């Protein structure tokens, strides 16, 4: 009867995904147009944006780029007078592409390595939501070998196989206190893998208006044997055993996009993309700890995501032989329903603004730069599961640069 | 070269954006509303004083809910708030219980014996002189606030330490709190008028006024007097209801089913736990009978030739048990007191912190700002090691219940307390 069962200290959720985790930074030219461009055979980034357009690229090329991303989120607890900010940490979404095919042939091979999902949020170890989350570093790196074939002079199809390498490091404070008063801390870290595909259709009409239909499949990423470390007072180590591991599943959603490209003049083209992001697969998140104790039960947290969507409009203007300029606007609807917003991805509907330029000093060499800005709307929320109650507001800044060699 | 320019451009862009922080607007602004917080006083008992872990000590005093509220009131015109803190040298005050081991879920509680504030062998505490705004006194009851004999001022060491030698034995709490020129008050008093009785297993000890139940009508009448005095100059304030005594770990940790399971583990033939009820009857206990927390460390259960508590001839004594009829009685008194508190406060236009309602929610379990809080002993986070009083985290949570009620009543915008900055129970290493 002297037994006092430790209550479930880990009842709170550990992880969530949002639109905020979808990183729309896969090619500098498209980024400069707010992410539109699936209906344009712009460059080797079509491996991601539309495999069907790859075969219409004139040259073979390799390119590499990076978009140092600053995710600036702020939180004000309900009723509080204090605004807390995430630490300035720069996430490095990157992209590498190679496209090759015999000249004047009907097919091209492509390879893309890019980061379509990820998140880097560090609220610090002592902020007011620390028991929900202190930091998250999530990276999904997709490897996509691709084949693109011209069916006619105006229709191309393409498809790629996707292998995802996922990395996650998630930390939060535990509401158990050491003798000096500080809180316990949990760190979950693991890598996982998953598979999927990316297929696209590209049609260029006689009027030169082009259309695209692209589907990127869901990628269920399985994390097996991730490490679950708990920094707790020694008297609780029985409840939080050392060397524990966990298994989890991370569903990355499918995206279906419809794109249109409209040439306005010889040098100017307009691109519009509408995307449907099928987040509904993300109904709950489960953590299966290999060693369970009365205080450390497996968790299954409801997420109840709905599908998200985005609309992007961009313009590409070839100002001179060597210089192209771009700009774009967009709007995205969040998949996160009221009551499920978390500090990992303090998501809400968002505006997108972008600009970009290309400089082509020689016929072999090209530099692209872009600037991408997202204004995620302020959202006052009380999370159903954790009770974290307050207002989130996020701004995202991502300048980017890439280098291309063509032949 | 071009690359150089672009890199510089990007570096400049990053520097620029680092400065562009998102802003979150607070529509209500910063105001005291119709209230004036320039001099706040807190009237109450142990909960108000910051008593925790079975004692009054400096760490607890600093995070007493009135102190947390006062710190936040400062942003809307609140003035200084003084408390009768123990000194750093005597920071452990009356002494308190620390959790020194937790083996297989079994806690060991050890009294802290250093840095105590006793000034003599009779266990009088260090005196505190000077302005006091946290007027919470452990053990204070509504009825004893009006102690006509004036002897409680000498008998209660927490009260005695605040008095000059000339006042000891010559005043009562009601007189003591007068003439403090306050502009705002909180009043959370009356808990002990029922808790004192319940904590003694519903046995009122003759000659010990701290173990009696205060008559319901008397309670209403004294509460009226108290409010009349506190609002004599039109001051605004907040009152708090009295939590259900059965919502605290003190009565919910050592349960009859747990006792029986423990007995069966040793002797599978054990069939029932026997108790002596308030009426003197001996019977098998049910889950509705509540056993006091200290019973777990009393070393009585199952002892003796006739195993204690496991045989009708050697039942658990009446004073260890709040039997189900006594539970009903105690609940009835709490409800009556609370209806008096609420109707009197409403008639005076005062804010009400419904802690009765709130602690019932805590009993069920709440998630606040990512922290799970419930009424479980040690792990629940809200209650300290005595199973009655609050942890710093519990004080922060209750401070917000007060702040939200004040804001709602007076249109003020006192900021809430960040509860995640306050600890629960300290677990040993």
From TrEMBL, chain A:
Keyword Signal annotated: yes
Q: Name one Pfam family in it.
A: Toluene_X
Keyword list (alphabetical) reads: Cell outer membrane, Membrane, Signal, Transmembrane, Transmembrane beta strand
UniProt superkingdom: Bacteria
Molecular function as annotated in GO: long-chain fatty acid transporting porin activity
Q: Give the UniProt entry's GO cellular component terms.
A: cell outer membrane
By sequence similarity, the record places it as follows:
Belongs to the OmpP1/FadL family.
Protein name, per record: Long-chain fatty acid transport protein
Tell me which species this is from.
Pedobacter soli
From TrEMBL, chain B:
Q: Which UniProt keywords apply?
A: Hydrolase, Signal
The organism sits in which domain of life?
A: Bacteria
Gene3D superfamilies reported for this sequence: SGNH hydrolase (3.40.50.1110)
Which residues are the signal sequence here? 1-18
Q: Name one GO molecular function term.
A: hydrolase activity, acting on ester bonds
- Carries keyword Transmembrane? no
Q: Which InterPro entries match?
A: GDSL, SGNH_hydro_sf
Q: Does the keyword Ion transport apply?
A: no
Record's protein name: GDSL-like Lipase/Acylhydrolase
Classification of source organism: Bacteria, Pseudomonadati, Bacteroidota, Sphingobacteriia, Sphingobacteriales
